[in-house]
Specification:
Length: 292
């Protein structure tokens, strides 16, 4: 091969390497710019959420699809959960009744606080009873789901640890207060989000019912129950996927939701320690910032 030909080939190879280096540099710059834009977007959201005035003692906002906590206010503080705990009660009950999905309403269940129209010895499919319990936040429904299952509380706490919850303790199945100083269940706002996200992924057929304003369910004996949702702002939250309320005098108002923002990202929000009405106004304000 002539020297001129060798030089031409070398020059061509050098040009190829130079072009690759330029393209690699351009690609890196684009990625860096995208990363910077995303980081700035999160900073802007955090700043906006910080300026939102809420009644809640604790707030946690988690972007499920980006796998990042966007915002937190006392999000790791262990606080009373009230009926948010029914999410875990249902999760463990669904594990229990895989082989025998029928539940009977026993007398002890009907003794629980609140009357939601169950009939003595009425038989239910476990998934329908779970939907009823979640939508109405029914204490008798939760108690019936537990039934005579052994070590139910222990398994609730064990499951919480397995799915990544850290600051929690579950003392009963319903979240009802024991007295004026001791609640039935505790967890952080961050933990409440973890619980809701896991529940929706594990049993979407059951937990998707929590966003229905009302639902009609028939027991296995043919009796139809009409249930209204305890979340009164469902129609004000766009693309809502999950909802669970909680309230007692000791606890105050709690609320967890999962929804999609206008870009299609799934966002989980929990407010703990608000007021009975404040939990709804708090959530509306937070959703308005996060949706846009």
């Amino acid at each position: 091969m002539k020297p001129n030909n060798k030089n031409s080939i070398l020059l061509f190879i050098l040009i190829i390497f130079a072009l690759e280096a330029i393209l690699f540099s351009i690609g890196n710059n684009k990625l860096n710019n995208i990363s910077k834009n995303e980081e700035q977007k999160i900073v802007n959201i955090k700043n906006a959420l910080t300026n939102v005035q809420v009644y809640a003692k604790a707030v946690s906002v988690y972007d499920i699809d980006s796998n990042i906590e966007i915002y937190g206010k006392n999000q790791n503080e262990k606080l009373p959960l009230a009926s948010l705990i029914k999410t875990m009660t249902v999760l463990v009950a669904l594990d229990d009744y895989r082989t025998n999905p029928t539940i009977t309403i026993e007398p002890d269940a009907l003794k629980q606080f609140g009357d939601f129209g169950f009939l003595l010895y009425e038989k239910w499919d476990v998934k329908n009873l779970a939907k009823f319990t979640l939508v109405a936040s029914a204490n008798d429904g939760a108690y019936a789901l537990v039934g005579d299952s052994k070590n139910f509380l222990e398994r609730m706490n064990s499951k919480a640890r397995r799915i990544g919850m850290e600051n929690f303790s579950f003392l009963n199945f319903t979240g009802l207060d024991f007295d004026e100083q001791r609640a039935g269940a505790y967890a952080s706002a961050k933990d409440a989000n973890i619980m809701a996200i896991y529940a929706l992924k594990a049993h979407p057929d059951v937990f998707s019912a929590t966003v229905l304003p009302e639902i009609s369910l028939k027991s296995q004996v043919g009796f139809v129950h009409n249930i209204k949702n305890t979340n009164i702002i469902l129609n004000k939250i766009p693309n809502i996927l999950f909802s669970k309320t909680g309230f007692t005098t000791l606890v105050g108002g709690n609320l967890t939701i999962i929804f999609k923002n206008k870009d299609g990202y799934r966002i989980a929000i929990t407010v703990l320690g608000s007021t009975q009405d404040g939990r709804f106004s708090d959530m509306e304000k937070l959703v308005n910032v996060l949706y846009n």
